[in-house]
Design brief:
Length: 260
C-alpha cells in the first residue's frame, strides 16, 4: 500500500512538472536593422535542447519556468534570457547586436619576406607628409621627436611622449603591439558607431513619428528594410524623412491589401 502511494506521489509530482512546461514561440531580429534573423540557434540550458529560427526569425522550443535560453548567431553577441513569469505566460521578441571581435593575428607574407628585403623596405619607405613639413619647421631635435599631430598634420603640442616620431611610426607599423593597438582602436570605433546608430534609429523614434505600437510597430520597421550602411551614412533628419516616406507607402499598401 505504501508503495502504491509512493508511485501516486511520484506521478503527481511529474504531472505538476510537465504542467509547467510549454512550447515557447518567439522571434529573433537584428537589433539595428530590425530584420528577422534566420538560422539563429536557441539553446535551453536546463533541458539541453536546441532550436533554430526559420526564415521569419521565429523559433519554438519547450520551456519551463526559470529555464535559461541562450540565443546566438555568428557575428552577433549572445543574448541570455531567463524564462520568468512574464516570458512564460506572455510573448517577447529578442534582438541581437553585432559584436566587435579581436581576431587572432595572421601571418602575412610580404613581397620581400627576407631580412634583406625588409631592410630595403624600411630604407625606401616614405614617411607621411607631415614629417616632411616638420623638417621645414624651426624645431630642435627633441621637439621634433616629441611633437604630436592632428590628422591634417598641424602641430598640437611639443611635449609628451614621442609617439609620432619617425622611429615610433616604424614601430607602430611593424610591431605586434602596434598592430593589436590599431585593431583595438578599430573595435572601439566600431562600438561607438553601433551606439550612434541605435540613437539615430530605434523603436521609440519610429513610434513617435508614426504613432504605431507593439507588433504593428515592429512590422512597419521590417517593412522599412533599412540596411546597416544606409543608417551609418544617413543623417538624423534623413532617417526621419525616410521613416515618414515609408510610413505613407506602408499605409497605402495596407489599404490596398485590405481591398483585395
Amino acid at each position: 500500500m505504501k508503495r502504491l502511494w509512493l508511485i501516486v506521489g511520484i506521478l503527481c509530482c511529474l504531472s505538476a512538472v510537465f504542467a509547467q512546461q510549454k512550447k515557447y514561440s518567439a522571434r529573433v531580429f537584428d537589433g539595428i536593422t530590425y530584420q528577422p534573423l534566420p538560422g539563429a540557434s536557441v539553446y535551453n540550458m536546463s533541458t539541453q535542447q536546441f532550436a533554430f529560427t526559420d526564415k521569419d526569425g521565429r523559433f519554438e522550443i519547450a520551456v519551463s519556468l526559470n529555464d535559461t535560453l541562450i540565443i546566438s548567431k555568428s557575428i552577433y553577441r549572445q543574448h541570455v534570457a531567463a524564462i520568468d513569469k512574464k516570458l512564460f505566460y506572455g510573448f517577447e521578441d529578442f534582438f541581437l547586436y553585432y559584436k566587435a571581435t579581436m581576431l587572432k593575428e595572421v601571418t602575412i607574407i610580404g613581397i620581400n619576406p627576407s631580412y634583406e628585403g625588409f631592410k630595403k623596405d624600411i630604407v625606401t619607405l616614405e614617411l607621411p607628409d607631415y614629417y616632411k613639413r616638420m623638417e621645414e619647421a624651426q624645431l630642435s631635435e627633441w621637439q621634433k621627436a616629441n611633437a604630436s599631430y592632428k590628422p591634417s598634420g598641424n602641430i598640437l603640442s611639443l611635449g609628451g611622449t614621442a609617439t609620432m616620431s619617425p622611429i615610433s611610426y616604424f614601430y607602430d607599423k611593424y610591431s605586434h603591439k602596434g598592430k593589436m593597438g590599431r585593431l583595438y582602436n578599430e573595435m572601439l570605433s566600431y562600438n561607438e558607431e553601433m551606439e550612434r546608430i541605435q540613437q539615430k534609429y530605434n523603436r521609440d523614434l519610429v513610434s513617435e513619428l508614426t504613432g504605431l505600437q507593439g507588433d504593428e510597430l515592429l512590422d512597419f520597421m521590417m517593412y522599412c528594410h533599412f540596411n546597416y550602411y544606409d543608417l551609418v551614412r544617413w543623417s538624423d533628419e534623413q532617417i526621419r524623412e525616410k521613416i515618414r516616406a515609408n510610413y505613407f507607402n506602408y499605409q497605402y499598401d495596407r489599404i490596398a491589401n485590405e481591398k483585395q
